[in-house]
Amino acid sequence: MPSAAALERGSEAGRLIVESHRAQNGGAFPETVAVNLWGLDAIKTKGESVAIVLHLVGARPVREGAEFFWRQHAHRRLTVAPTGNLGEVTLACFGVRATTSRTRGGSRE
Question: In angstroms, rounded to a whole number, what is the distance separating the alpha carbons of residues 15 and 56?
Fold first, then answer.
């Protein structure tokens, strides 16, 4: 993840986010960009939101291995743009999980 098509779409979306901000703010780069990464969304789009984040932080997956009709190249590593091209980059990830649990009888604990 992301698939080749999702990587293309996500990279384009990331580029447009920055381009739009710069056009509306006298050429200034955005100080903060938020991207929600939802598991189901990532599955449905084959990683488009992940590709947006990768583009925004200057990372690009390296495709490795053979490509067959039933699976794509594996992404096992990333290339990262030199930080001088990006300025200061911070990527904050927060995990959320369900906080309610159920007993066998279906009632909440």
Answer: 8
Report how far Cα 87 is from the mean position of its chain's Cα atoms: 19
Task: Kindly report, residue by residue over 55-82, the tens digit of the pLDDT.
Answer: 998 888 887 665 555 555 566 678 887 7
SS (H, E, C) 19-79: HHHHHHCCCCCCCCCCCCCCHHHHHHHCCHHHHHHHHHCCEEEEEECCCECCECCEEEEEE
Cα(12)–Cα(35) distance, integer angstroms:
14
Which residue range is the domain that position 68 belongs to?
A: 4-85
Between the CA of residue 20 and those of 12, 17, 58, what are the distances in Å? Answer: 12, 5, 18
Q: What is the pTM of this model?
A: 0.71
Q: Residue 73: inside a domain, yes or no? A: yes
